Amino acid sequence: MALHLGNACLCAFSHRKVQRIRAVASENFAIKTEEDKVKLGGSDLKVTKLGIGAWSWGDTSYWNNFEWDDRKMKAAKAAFDSSVDCGITFFDTAEVYGSRFSLGAINSETLLGRFIKERKERNPEVEISVATKFAALPWRLGRQSVLTALKDSLCRLGLSSVDLYQLHWPGVWGNEGRKKLSLLENDFSGYIDGLGDAVEQGLVKAVGVSNYNEKRLRKAYEQLGKRGVPLASNQVNYSLIYRLPEENGVKTTCDELGITLIAYSPIAQGALTGKYTPEKPPTGPRRQIYTPEFLTRLQPLINRIKEIGQTYSKTPTQVVLNWLIAQENVVPIPGAKNKEQATEFAGALGWRLSDEEIVELRSLASETKPVTGFPVEKL
Q1: The NADP-dependent oxidoreductase domain covers which part of the protein (predicted)?
Q2: Closest CA to 108 of 133, 139, 129
């Protein structure tokens, strides 16, 4: 979860200058019917069973070895087009992905908007589901800050509305809620009210949260419910080797309340793909998380994942993504940097691991010490 503030939107917000784009796959794509999609929670929004995360697009502070250039731009564009060609039309971004304070960085929303526009020019029939997020920064106060940030995001994306708008993390600095003074004094969350306002103003089709624990999740669900607005999703860190949502009540609560769990870092930022070894760990900041020592302990699990994959003619990446999809009510959003990765992700769909394999992999993964997640999940 990058915490880098993107460029402020400089253009005036205008419904006349932007386009509305939603997801539906054309007849040439692998995903062809509404049955190949899932509803997000109690909303009317349907998305593909697997999405694409755009955290790395334009970023120079966590991904891409601290640089962004034309070659990486072309690779990201190819990842987008390949995803759509394979029928994966759900893309998740955020206003803080990509930072103007990092040399060469480009805001991820800006890139996604550009990719959509170029694709639309070639294929007017294609529609894309876009999800983005509001950053609960310390100086942002109350419900109006949500709407202001959303309109800036829409400007960068070149859209008049998005399909899913999410609170990126709770207002942990106390800026999320405020005290309402009245005869019946009560607390309420300004950010959640802002989400409800966005729905009522037609700026979004569905709303969600991210990195919310069980208590916060129930509160948000109840507050939106009073306005007749369903809480569609909770986006959290979830993978075979990071199963905190199973342990802290978040997954159970999502299932109980009918909230879709969107899983970010579903392949553990590449650690579960099998391409990293103790001798060849990942580069950049990820090396501090997935150390040679950690990768050594991970090898028995990786080896078993490879063996299972061979029985299905699938890669380790496809196996671990399928494992998540098999948990039900889960939509993984792996990050695709290039065409090859996007194409590989599509291979996680259309088949299912056996119940015995699902249990076995969880058991093996339990023997691996979990990595550190996003701290606000536990607040």
Answers
A1: 49-364
A2: 133
Distance between CA atoms of residues 304 and 263, nearest Å: 22
Report how far residue 323's alpha carbon sits from residue 260's, in angstroms, rounded to the nearest whole number: 16
Closest residue by Cα to residue 377 from 295, 264, 259: 264
Name the DSSP letter for residue 370: P
Cβ 336 vs Cβ 266: under 8 Å: no
Catalytic residue list contains 276: no
Whole-angstrom Cα distance, residue 53 to residue 101? 22
Q: Is 212 exposed, middle or buried (0-12, 13-18, 19+ CB in 10 A)?
A: buried
Q: Give 10-residue mean pLDDT values along the chain (379 residues).
A: 42 40 36 74 97 84 68 92 97 86 76 96 94 92 94 97 96 57 42 97 98 96 97 97 95 98 94 87 77 89 97 98 98 96 97 98 88 70
Residue with tokens 């199973």: 246
CA-to-CA distance for 150 and 298, rounded, in angstroms? 40
Catalytic residue from among 97, 165, 264, 290: 97
